[in-house]
């Protein structure tokens, strides 16, 4: 699919490398993160989305969070999108993160609705209205499972009609939403937000995939996305069947740990997570390991 806009294509919600310090803390490896961004660019990805849940933004200091953005922008080659997540408890803080992203050179930002309480439609619109003041294109992120606020198609149409958003990362898990949103808000880009519905969204016409598992398997995922978008199911479907046992982890609570483990297994540093995330249970680790080793055996790493 042609990338007419910076939020089009396969953008990777990047995992963040953390390394243990002598005193037992986990420090951000910014050099390692820069290398990861460059590696993704060299392996078929169209951009990155730093400071999403996969990047453990909730557990970063303000200084770390800002530096993640500037590191990604500095490491990105020309034409490679950096679209940071700017989620925060309040609209004022989210607007400031959007301003920081714009000043750093990011071409767009991704914004959850208020996630500290169950906001009504009026509060959601006010939230996006405030962040839009930063002057950076805003991609809404609908994740009702975690935020308890559902950006239903009617609400997305309202946000789009007011000019507050340019696209939405759709993570409800309901493929029917794609068609309803595009009917109510023609021109609003509906991006694949769940790895395990990437093929279905691409076939429906989605221009972008904000993805998780390309952190470990970028080239295979890029081939999958391009083929599915072209309607080449003979190429896409066999790949999807091999990858799906991994892709479905993107919708599970332990998705960060699972993706980081797969990164380790393919030879890219994933490493540990900061609390409250704990290591995978032995049962979950075995499932991820088996599925990753199968992908490696199939030549997808």
UniProtKB/TrEMBL annotation:
InterPro entries assigned: Aldolase_TIM (IPR013785), DapA-like (IPR002220)
Pfam family, one: DHDPS
Molecular function in Gene Ontology: 4-hydroxy-tetrahydrodipicolinate synthase activity
Keyword Transport: no
Annotated binding of pyruvate, by residue: 210
Lyase among keywords: yes
Signal peptide: none
Active site: 141, 169
Transmembrane region(s): none
Source organism superkingdom: Bacteria
Swiss-Prot/TrEMBL keywords: Lyase
Family note: Belongs to the DapA family.
Protein name, as recorded: Dihydrodipicolinate synthase family protein
């Amino acid at each position: 699919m042609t990338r007419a806009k910076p939020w089009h294509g396969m953008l990777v919600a990047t995992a963040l490398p953390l390394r243990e310090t002598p005193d037992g803390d986990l420090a951000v490896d910014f050099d390692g993160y820069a290398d990861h961004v460059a590696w993704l660019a060299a392996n078929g990805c169209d951009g990155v989305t730093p400071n999403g849940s996969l990047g453990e933004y909730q557990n970063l200091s303000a200084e770390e969070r800002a530096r993640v953005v500037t590191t990604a922008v500095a490491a990105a080659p020309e034409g490679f999108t950096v679209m940071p997540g700017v989620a925060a408890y309040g609209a004022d803080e989210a607007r400031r993160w959007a301003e920081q992203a714009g000043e750093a050179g990011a071409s767009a930002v991704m914004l959850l609705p208020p996630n500290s309480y169950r906001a009504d439609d009026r509060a959601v619109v006010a939230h996006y209205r405030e962040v839009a003041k930063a002057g950076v294109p805003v991609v809404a992120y609908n994740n009702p499972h975690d935020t308890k606020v559902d950006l239903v198609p009617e609400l997305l149409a309202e946000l789009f009609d007011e000019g507050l958003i340019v696209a939405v990362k759709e993570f409800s898990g309901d493929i029917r939403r794609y068609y309803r949103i595009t009917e109510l808000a023609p021109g609003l880009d509906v991006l694949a937000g769940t790895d395990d519905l990437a093929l279905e969204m691409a076939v429906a016409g989605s221009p972008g995939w904000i993805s998780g598992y390309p952190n470990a398997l970028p080239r295979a995922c890029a081939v999958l996305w391009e083929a599915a978008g072209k309607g080449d199911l003979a190429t896409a479907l066999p790949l999807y069947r091999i990858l799906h046992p991994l892709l479905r982890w993107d919708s599970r609570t332990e998705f960060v740990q699972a993706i980081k483990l797969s990164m380790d297994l393919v030879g890219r540093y994933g490493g540990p997570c900061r609390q409250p995330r704990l290591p995978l249970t032995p049962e979950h680790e075995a499932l991820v390991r088996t599925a990753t080793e199968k992908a490696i055996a199939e030549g997808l790493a």
